Amino acid sequence: MNTTLDLTIAPSDELLDAIRDTAAAADQHADLIGSHDRMLDDGLFHLLVPSDLGGAGASIVDWFDAALAIAYADPAAGWIMAQGAVQNAWMAVGGDLAFTTEYFQTRQTIATSSAGSATAERLGDDFVVRNARWGYVSGSQGAAYLGGMVRTTTADGAPESRMVLVPAAEATILPSWDTLGLRGTGSHHIDLGDELVVPVERTFTWPSVAITRPGPLASVTHHTLWFISLSAAAVNLGAARRAIAEATVSAEHKLHRFDTVPVIEQSPFIRGIAELHGRVELAIAGLRSLLQRLWDDALEGDGPDIAQRARLRLAASAATAMGADVVREAQMLTGADAMHRAHPLERLGRDTQMLLNHVVTSATSREQFAKVLLGSYQGPPGFI
Q1: pTM of the entire structure?
Q2: Range of the domain at 267
């Protein structure tokens, strides 16, 4: 029988301390299993899951705030938490009723990706999946189920895309994630083989989720991709907050040659930090306001239309870039010390640069969002 998770919406100080203390090792070894399991135990991957499935039933603003807090401790952990919680939300509102009920009996996660060329053919109650290989599967090392997007058709021959899932024990994780930053996400490639059979109940439509459990979460989750944009923004903004704090700590004790007072008392540093604080808090407040409006509408049964999603994703993309800029400027305020691998600002710089290369923040994606607002977008609504 499902029971509501015993958790508070905000991550505990003990959890944040543990994540922060192990972040450097996770970065070095590209392994975030310890932090993944701690977040799983605390129920963070089930924040958005409705209470009738044993989740916390939190709002999308609560989810964003939790991702900010985790990213402050470690951006890689923030990405895993944000995306893991979102993928459980997709399952909760769009998964097969019997399978999801069973799935949510246990605290567990799924890890999927759309970065592949797999196809699937419906045969009765199964899909025959071919070329089942995907890249960039964040959180793959700790997930209970792995999979990715497949291209298939409906019964009447119309194109359709779905996520397919298999137990993690049946998949091969290929250690491909050797990157500049966000190494702890373990976003490796996975290989499920040239051909396999996946029961229909272990699939759901994506990126537009066919709703099986209506409710506020379903209203905002029907179109999924804006969640990924907001995950990137939360990670880089949480990292930016941390960068400001680390630059301040460094300035408390730093004396430049011939200085008589520490850097923290000097006007250039004070003005620089004031500017960074203002930019970060403005971005966070703006995104929280947009999310709160979406959630209030969802409580009334209304999901965001394509123009709302485009505006939200443009705002998230701008916030992601701004977060990386703030980290870089915090490094400059700190000076050469920030470039040492032993200094937290060095890793924060690498981590935040990584998300500038994610497809949701790319110039091509921003162009599509702008076309929506200009009335010239002709692509599928589900990809906005």
Answers
A1: 0.95
A2: 223-383
